[in-house]
Amino acid sequence: MENINPFLLPGAWYKGALHAHTTRSDGKLSPAESAAAHRQAGYDFISITDHEVITDMSEFGTPDFLTIPGVEVGHSKNAVGQQYHMVLVGIRQLTRAHYGDSMQMAIDTWREQAKLVFIPHAYWSGMVVDELMALERIAGMEIWNTSSQTDLGKGLATVQWDDLLARGKRWAGFATDDTHGINDDFDGGWVCAKSEHLDEASILQALNTGAFYTSTGPVIEDFRIENGVAYLRCSATSVINFIGHTQWGLQRRAAPGQTITEFEYKLTGKERYLRAECRDAAGHMAWTNPLYLL
């Protein structure tokens, strides 16, 4: 992952859903209904990722609503006996991994066609740091999965993310719904990609280089590090965290009944990486991708 700060790049912010299911696998909404629901909710781009099948959404695309083909695939088993899942985006033909192939061999096979690959619901799947560290050619992992949260409270995976970042893994953090339309899992998490154009190549480049932030509600307006000082500006929130390697970072909390919209933090030189997150009074959160300091 490149050390790119999207808040310093030209372009506009585009709201995107990267993990959603329809009636072509185990979702409740038809492809047409899903496209309409996402448009109504203000999404600029979507990737429908039905299980093991690529759903053609091209007929629902318009100049201001981009559809990118995707699929969710499974392969092998992790240490606790659960199948590895992977989300593949920008794929038009699915090359199947062979039975008995290692997980990395499967990823290499899928990368022959997919332009973006990331791991979904790591907490829900019981993934541990050693398994995740071993995987390459992946843009990152879901740090928030709405369906996993509304299903059984295992939607937040920032602990796993920080485990990897502390060990030098430069992965981006994605927020998704994993929408099935069954248990209030729609429009609960998304990416905001910074791009000069709303087209597939530009959006996928932004996602692959970390030029995005993720959210379940709050808006992050600025995040930067200048002259040894980190700065975040966001919509009204209750808590802002700057998070670096292990214990390095700082939290700012609003006084009871009040909100905060910005925070500065002077680096100690020990952070190695720094990411920011904020949480509003309703519990909704937003996360930047890390800026790497080494």
At CATH level 2, the architecture of the largest domain is Alpha-Beta Barrel
Number of helices: 7
Listing every helix as H and every strand as E from the N terminus to the C terminus, the arrangement reads EHEEEEHEHHEHHEEHEEEEEEEEE
Q: Count structural domains.
A: 2
| Strand fraction | 25-35%
User: Structural class per helix/strand content?
Assistant: alpha+beta
Task: Report the end-to-end length measured between terminal Cα atoms.
Answer: 13 Å
Mean pLDDT: 97
- Proportion of helical residues: 10-25%
Report the uncertain regions.
none
Assign the CATH class of the largest domain.
Answer: Alpha Beta
CATH fold annotation of the largest domain = TIM Barrel
Over the alpha carbons, how many angstroms does the gyration radius reach?
A: 18 Å
Shape: globular
> Total number of β-strand segments?
18
CATH superfamily of the largest domain: Metal-dependent hydrolases
The major pleated sheet works out as: 10 strands, mixed
Short description:
With 294 residues, this protein is α+β, with helices and mostly antiparallel strands. The chain has helices at 31-40, 103-110, 122-125, 129-133, 146-152, 158-166, 200-208, and strands spanning 12-17, 45-46, 66-67, 70-77, 83-89, 116-119, 140-145, 172-176, 190-195, 212-215, 220-226, 229-237, 239-244, 249-253, 260-266, 273-279, 285-287, 291-292.
Describe this structure in words.
The chain is an alpha+beta fold and 294 residues long. 18% of the residues lie in helices and 33% in strands. The chain has seven helices and 18 strands. The strands form three sheets. Strands 1, 2, 3, 9, 10, 13, 14, 16, 17 and 18 form a ten-stranded mixed beta sheet that branches. Helix 1 (31-40) links the parallel strand 1 and strand 2. The longest helix has 10 residues, at 31-40. It starts with 11 loop residues before the first strand and ends with a strand.
